[in-house]
Automatic annotation (TrEMBL):
Domain Beta-lactamase-related: 29-353
Pfam name, any one: Beta-lactamase
Highest taxon above the source species: Bacteria
UniProt protein name: CubicO group peptidase (Beta-lactamase class C family)
Database matches in PANTHER family: BETA-LACTAMASE FAMILY PROTEIN (AFU_ORTHOLOGUE AFUA_5G07500), BETA-LACTAMASE-RELATED
Signal peptide bounds: none
């Protein structure tokens, strides 16, 4: 039996959204495809537990039209899913987010890392942004633990905010296994994805049987990106950047967060856990990777009140929180309005294009909220 999608459809007008402004947003995406900035995309906007818009654009792969069933590489949008697993472990009493990582992952303290807390890890203050996990450790838990415990510090933990593209969330994956005995992919599926009834549309660790649904991730020159295009990469469920999903699945996930950890009567987190996670832990300190304050929460970042912000839209309410995927996507939720937004595309664009593009698309979505 097919499980119904957890967000029932509603018209934009029913949800206090301006249909004309949403059509203008869609036209902007179509214009970017026509200008060959990317070949395909998907957009979803939801509010108050209902889906106002879910539309696919262009091609998923050459000659293959993007459809509602297409799965898109989430890149770093995956970080919020992985972080949510730690939030859940904290509310279950398995750890405290103020604990040091080494308390739950013995051996991690080597090289001066013993005082790093989960808060510092998830807010990109841990001090090892350039550390990498080799492919041979993706499916070898003992090797993964050895690699992350051997990460070398580049600066004193807590002294800087600098985005960790992959390393911090590999540590989170190792902690999930150390604390639960379960692979992070299985833990996320069992505790977050399946309870939200998103198992057909959201994956951290993509089964090979789902590969025909995947949109190729391409470079600006049109070539397929590797290793992203390999089944090994898709299956690995890289915790900081390897998830796959539909835009409506990500809009639904953010609806759950906006709903205090519950969606359609199914709870994955407590309201207080979500509130704790989406606080601003880094104030207006600049993130040296992004060149601006990012107002880091424990997974997502927040709009805040600085003049500019990456991806969430210039006119967003200060409490809006979300995350992006490098050069290709952004997903967010706005607690003030109850709106969630997900834009996914299949080209890893330059930041010179992607940053302004996402500021424009997100701003247009916020401008469509009229009541």
């Amino acid at each position: 039996m097919t499980v119904p999608f957890p967000l029932p459809d509603a018209s934009p007008a029913e949800l206090g959204l301006d249909p004309g402004r949403l059509e203008a947003l869609c036209a902007r995406i179509e214009a970017d495809i026509a200008a060959e900035h990317h070949s395909g995309a998907q957009l979803a906007i939801a509010r108050h537990g209902r889906l106002a818009l879910h539309r696919s654009f262009g091609e998923a792969r050459p000659g293959v039209k993007a459809t509602a069933e297409t799965l898109w590489l989430l890149y770093s949008n995956t970080k919020v899913l992985t972080a949510a697993a730690l939030w859940l472990l904290a509310e279950r009493g398995a750890l405290r987010l103020s604990d040091t990582v080494a308390e739950h992952l013995p051996g991690f303290e080597t090289g001066g890392k013993g005082a790093i807390t989960f808060i510092e890890l998830l807010t990109h203050q841990a001090g090892f942004p350039s550390a990498e996990v080799p492919a041979e450790a993706w499916e070898d838990p003992a090797k993964l633990r050895e690699v992350v415990c051997d990460f070398s510090l580049e600066w004193a933990p807590g002294s800087l905010v600098r985005y960790h593209p992959a390393a911090a969330h590999w540590v989170a994956a190792a902690v999930i296994r150390a604390v639960t005995g379960e692979d992070h992919r299985a833990f996320l599926r069992r505790n977050i994805i399946e309870p939200l009834r998103l198992e057909r549309e959201l994956f951290v660790g993509l089964p090979e049987a789902e590969a025909p649904r995947v949109a190729d991730m391409r470079d600006v020159d049109g070539s397929v990106r590797m290793p992203e295009g390999s089944q090994a990469h898709r299956a690995a469920g890289i915790p900081g950047g390897g998830g796959y999903g539909t835009a409506r699945a990500m809009a639904a996930f953010y609806q759950a967060l906006l709903g205090g950890g519950a969606l359609a009567g199914r709870r994955i987190l407590s309201p207080r856990s979500v509130e704790y996670a989406v606080r601003n832990y880094t104030g207006d300190r600049p993130d040296e990777y992004n060149g601006m304050p990012m107002h880091r929460g424990l997974g997502p970042h927040l709009r805040g009140t600085t003049p500019a912000i990456r991806g969430l839209g210039a006119i967003a309410h200060p409490s809006t929180f979300g995350h992006g995927g490098v050069g290709s996507s952004y997903c967010w939720g706005d607690p003030a309005s109850g709106v969630s937004f997900a834009f996914l595309s299949n080209t890893r664009q330059s930041e010179e294009f992607h940053g302004p593009r996402m500021d424009t698309l997100s701003t247009m979505a916020h401008a469509a909220i009229i009541s």
